[in-house]
């Protein structure tokens, strides 16, 4: 006959088994459902010591310095901090209004060093809609960041007026409109919710197209998959023309980055990346978009459209252009 004490021991063991089984199930589900379960903790990258050899200076800068009393700026400024930086997410409208004056930023969000001629002439293109808080954080962080790298740059914010969001086409619009202002040799296509954390992550172009945001905090600083070419990318103007820019047909979320990767590979180029400890980004909080139902179909037919769907067939209507103190704002109807 089983005693009460013995019965309690059996019940305790049963409870423990259920608790352990529950914990095992939770751990397995976390591993299976985690977004970076297949992420790469290591990927091929340019060694930090080799980065200067891979950067592509602007030919125009070389020509300008011959007619100027100013010397060329260093390709990479000396003494860039290697510590991990974090954005101030409590930026106010007052901060934004006074930043341009404090940093001597030109109207339209442009800046260049006064003491030397920058070897990097960069247009930073931001697709935008309904992300005002993230934009304030981005601008307040990025202008000091870019100035420390001694770039000749301008920030373009391309806002879609109505309809399903088309991030890739907004990139194409930004590219086309930027070239009407200045012959930039390097273009950086950048989401507004990504913030670089290392000053050694140069916002300049390399010989091959570069995936800049390869180490993001939301993926535990891992690369989700090796073909990823989104978030923040840098590409030379001549290379962007060669691949015919982005596709114009990706409405809604998803697919356009993979299509752009295919365009680059199709033209015989390869992606490059900086080391994981350099290419670190933090992602600002934002609401998630619903995936487009057509993204897989568009990707499947992409190769057939590389030559007929891109900057060479781009159509849009400019509704308004404003040269704000911290950026050039272009409102478009797609």
Automatic annotation (TrEMBL):
Membrane topology recorded in Swiss-Prot or TrEMBL: Single-pass type II membrane protein
Pathway the protein contributes to: Protein modification; protein glycosylation
Lineage top rank: taxon: Eukaryota
Keyword Ribonucleoprotein among record annotations: no
GO terms under biological process: carbohydrate metabolic process; glycosphingolipid biosynthetic process
Any coiled-coil regions, as ranges: none
Membrane-crossing residue ranges in chain numbering: none
The Galactosyltransferase C-terminal domain, residue ranges: 210-286
GO molecular function annotation: galactosyltransferase activity; metal ion binding; N-acetyl-beta-glucosaminyl-derivative 4-beta-N-acetylgalactosaminyltransferase activity
GO CC term (a single one): membrane
Necessary cofactors: Mn(2+)
Residue ranges constituting the Galactosyltransferase N-terminal domain according to the UniProt record: 101-206
InterPro entries: Galactosyl_T, Galactosyl_T_C, Galactosyl_T_N, Nucleotide-diphossugar_trans
Xref: PANTHER family: BETA-1,4-GALACTOSYLTRANSFERASE, BETA-1,4-N-ACETYLGALACTOSAMINYLTRANSFERASE
Function of the molecule: Catalyzes the transfer of galactose onto proteins or lipids.
Listed name of the protein: Beta-1,4-N-acetylgalactosaminyltransferase
Species of provenance: Coptotermes formosanus
């Amino acid at each position: 006959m089983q005693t009460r004490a013995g019965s309690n021991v059996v019940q305790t063991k049963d409870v423990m088994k259920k608790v352990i089984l529950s914990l095992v199930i939770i751990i397995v589900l976390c591993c299976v459902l985690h977004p970076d379960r297949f992420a790469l903790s290591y990927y091929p990258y340019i060694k930090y010591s080799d980065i200067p050899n891979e950067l592509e200076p602007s030919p125009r800068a070389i020509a300008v310095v011959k007619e100027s009393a100013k010397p060329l700026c260093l390709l990479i400024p000396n003494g860039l901090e290697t510590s991990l930086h974090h954005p101030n997410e409590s930026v106010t409208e007052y901060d934004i209004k006074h930043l341009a004056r404090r940093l001597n930023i030109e109207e339209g969000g442009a800046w260049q060093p006064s003491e030397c001629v920058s070897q990097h002439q960069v247009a930073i293109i931001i697709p935008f809609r309904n992300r005002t808080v993230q934009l304030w954080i981005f601008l307040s962080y990025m202008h000091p960041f870019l100035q420390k790298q001694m770039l000749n740059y301008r920030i373009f914010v391309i806002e879609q007026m109505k309809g399903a969001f088309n991030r890739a086409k907004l990139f194409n619009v930004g590219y086309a409109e930027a070239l009407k202002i200045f012959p930039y040799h390097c273009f950086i296509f950048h989401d507004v919710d990504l913030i670089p954390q290392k000053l050694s992550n140069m916002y300049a172009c390399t010989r091959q197209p570069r995936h800049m945001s390869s180490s993001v905090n939301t993926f535990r600083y891992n690369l989700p998959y090796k073909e990823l070419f989104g978030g923040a990318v840098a590409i030379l103007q001549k290379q962007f023309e060669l691949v015919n820019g982005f596709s114009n047909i990706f409405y809604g979320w998803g697919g356009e980055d993979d299509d752009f990767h295919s365009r680059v590979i199709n033209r015989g180029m390869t992606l490059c990346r900086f080391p994981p400890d350099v290419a670190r980004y933090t992602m600002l909080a934002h609401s998630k978009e619903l995936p487009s139902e057509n993204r897989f179909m568009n990707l499947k037919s992409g190769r057939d459209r590389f030559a007929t769907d891109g900057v060479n067939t781009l159509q849009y209507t400019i509704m308004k252009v404003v040269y704000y103190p911290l950026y050039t704002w272009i409102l478009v109807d797609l």
